[in-house]
Amino acid sequence: MNRLRLLLLVLLTPMIMAQARPRLVPAVSDEQIEIVYSFTGAELMIYGAILYPGGRPPDDPVDIVVVLKGPQQSILMREKQQRAGIWMNAAQARFRSAPAFYAVASSRPIAEIVDERTAAIYELGIDGLQLSPASANPPAEARRFVAGLADLRQRTGLYAELPDAVEVTEGVLFNARISVPARVPVGEYTAETFLIQNGRVLTGEVRDIRIDKGGFERFVADAANRHSLLYGLFAVAISLLLGWLAGLAFRRI
After folding, report:
1. Which among 140, 139, 158, 141 has a CA at the least distance from the CA of 150?
2. I need a surface site. Which of 29, 48, 111, 251 has the fewest CB within 10 A?
3. Is pLDDT of 9 > 60?
């Protein structure tokens, strides 16, 4: 009988622990963003609620971290150096997989919420990104390229850290706003929401987001992808026509 009770306890423990954990119910303001000729950027809101076992928030405060990223792409970086008065490519590094866009919003600075190991596991913060290098650069050189990529994309608005950008109300409701720049690439994105308490990730949820071209821009992109030869010939013909018209106009002047 004791063995049977012990076996039941072992089998039921994961179910009991799962029921004892809080749940996240996140949502996004736009699951699809269309880029048209007048697109100057967008503001995406991630909001939702935290469902606690028994319906009561814990005594210890919780933190929310939201990560918006995508699409993954292969990147080749080159470093220029001046040699004999001439700027030339001196070194290069390839990354097998890196997000074209990455933004993290949090209720506090990431360093105050989790340690470096946890940040690396869940890719919380730019320093925690796993960029998957594909070239055999020396460690010091590889770190320099990683820092250079992060700095370049931060300056162009494609990588961003937004501390104190998540508002948690009564430990139950949360909302965050993340700006999407105008030059953001099209593709599949994910919005990952993490619930963290005392430096430990309790649970997380993911929502998918699609950023795509719309209107005339979508028509042009589809034409270039599906009928590349005809698109190229049409583009050359338009260029020749415009050049001829410009020459005709200057001739009359």
Report:
1. 158
2. 251
3. no
